[in-house]
Specification:
The protein has a domain of 130 residues. The chain is an all-alpha fold. Helix 8 crosses helix 9 and helix 9 runs parallel beside helix 11. It contains 13 helices and no strands.
């Protein structure tokens, strides 16, 4: 009930988002104040604190980095999958760290108890308010709110404990292990950032992680470098993975943006030189008065 509220974010302490994409498109679709309100709401309902989430991402990136994944490709792993599968590794703590497992079990039991008490407490407060006083409804609402807040805090502590255990290698991350297994079979070995991004997509596809593959493929379309996009397409074709038309369109868009940026930088550098002035406007000699053609025609007359 209080689980699976996770989303991809970027925090001030740790960058956890893939490059430029999903949230930028979200900003373009809706007013900025709605976007900020949505982000703020998500920030306070995640089962992880920002510190716990950063620790979990550090554990994932360290494991992938130890197996050769490098650069921006580390940002293309779907963190939500880690959060959803992390509780399944709790049983492993009973063997590797019994004390932490007991703490995890205590937090889980207290959370379930508080949530189980909420429905009967609501019913009792309503029945008593009808028979006695409506003030009992307010007292019941306060008690329910306090129980839910305590349950949510316990859930966050439990998830942070599991994230810390994953960082200390006390529990495994099955999705990361499956991805590493898929990467080990890939030949030729990736050599560029674009190749590594495509290698992750291919590894996801080989291990049946289709949601993760689609996510990484969608985020690849937000790359700014045309060369990285071409590397992604080239590497995917080697493994007979369908390349969507949107990825080819992203290459053209990136080329246009790169050309525009280069042109803007060139103009700015020219204007920044001392004594330089903006270029004069180009006049049409056929229509502008006083042009050479007009003068010639006047002399002929």
């Amino acid at each position: 009930m209080l689980l699976h509220f996770s989303r991809f974010i970027d925090s001030k302490r740790h960058v956890v988002m893939p490059p430029a994409g999903r949230f930028q498109r979200a900003k373009d679709r809706r007013p900025r104040w709605i976007f900020n309100l949505h982000r703020s709401r998500e920030l306070h309902v995640w089962p992880f604190t920002i510190a716990g989430r950063s620790i979990l991402i550090d554990a994932m990136q360290r494991s992938l980095g130890a197996n050769g994944v490098r650069g921006i490709a580390l940002m293309f792993f779907r963190v939500r999958t880690l959060e959803e599968t992390l509780p399944f590794g709790a049983i492993q703590l009973s063997q590797t760290a019994p004390v932490q497992y007991q703490e995890h079990d205590r937090l889980k039991s207290e959370t379930e108890l508080r949530i189980a008490v909420v429905p009967p407490l609501v019913v009792i407060s309503i029945v008593l308010s009808v028979r006695f006083s409506w003030l009992l409804t307010i007292l019941g609402a306060i008690a329910v709110g306090a129980l839910l807040v305590q349950a949510f805090k316990n859930t966050r502590q439990r998830y942070d404990l599991l994230a810390n255990a994953a960082y200390l290698n006390l529990i495994d991350l099955p999705v990361v292990d499956a991805t590493i297994s898929g990467l080990s079979d890939l030949e030729p070995r990736p050599s560029t950032d674009g190749h590594w991004i495509a290698a992750l997509i291919a590894a996801f596809d080989r291990r049946g992680l289709y949601d993760e593959s689609d996510f990484a493929l969608g985020e690849a379309q937000t790359l700014d470098s045309p060369q990285d996009l071409l590397d992604v397409i080239d590497y995917l074709r080697k493994y007979d993975i369908d390349v969507p038309a949107s990825l080819h369109a992203a290459v053209e868009r990136a080329r246009e943006d790169e050309h525009r940026d280069v042109t803007r930088e060139l103009i700015d550098s020219v204007l920044a030189e001392p004594g330089s002035s903006p270029p004069p406007p180009i006049r049409n000699s056929r229509t502008e008065p006083g042009s050479s053609e007009n003068e010639g025609s006047t002399n002929d007359e």
